Amino acid sequence: MSSQLALIIAILAEVAATSALKASDGFKNVVPSIIVIVGYGTAFYFLSLALRSIPMGVAYAIWSGVGIVLISMAGWLVYGQKLDLPAIAGMGLIVAGVFVLNVLSKSTGS
Predict the structure, then answer these.
(1) Which of 30, 43, 73, 76 is the most exposed place for a label (fewest CB within 10 A)?
(2) Which stretches of 2-108 are DSSP H helices?
(3) Beta carbons of 3 and 54 less than 8 angstroms apart
(4) Closest to 21 (Cα-Cα) out of 2, 34, 8
(5) What is the pLDDT along the chain (110 residues), one digit of tens a residue?
(6) What angle is formed at CA 17 by the lines to CA 38 and CA 64, rounded to 5 degrees?
(7) How many CB atoms lie within 10 A of CB 85?
(8) Sequence-separated contacts (24+) of 57-63 with Cβ below 8 Å
(9) Backbone angles phi, psi at 106, to 5 degrees
(10) CA dist 78 → 3, 25, 56, 70, 98 (Å)
């Protein structure tokens, strides 16, 4: 498995776990709580695989940056949370940073 695929799986698992964290209501709801535990376990496992060839700082920057944007979208779509223009602009800058890391930087490994 490529490190990039492992990183994508780690990101998606973390987004699922974080989204379920809100629904768990402080771990009072069983099914979302299980999703949180399995999701974070999966996320860290696949992140560890990605770190075999992607430098730690670069992998974490991509993981957290993409995660922020996806979690914000999940909050909007699932929980009806609103974002103002500065928040959207800030996330646009995050996306730009992830683009620079993936397309222009030679530090991402393969």
Answers:
(1) 30
(2) 3-24, 30-50, 56-79, 85-99
(3) yes
(4) 34
(5) 899 999 999 999 999 999 999 999 999 999 999 999 999 999 999 999 999 999 888 888 889 889 999 999 999 999 999 999 999 999 899 889 888 887 887 776 55
(6) 120
(7) 7
(8) 58/101, 58/105, 58/107, 58/108, 58/109, 59/3, 59/7, 61/97, 61/98, 61/101, 62/7, 62/11, 62/98, 62/101, 62/102, 62/108, 63/7, 63/10, 63/11, 63/14
(9) -95, 5
(10) 30, 15, 31, 12, 24
Q: How many residues does the chain have?
A: 110
Count of CB atoms situated within 10 Å of the CB of 16:
19
Residue type present at position 15: V
Backbone angles phi, psi at 52, to 5 degrees: -65, -35
Rounded CA separation 67/8 (Å) = 10
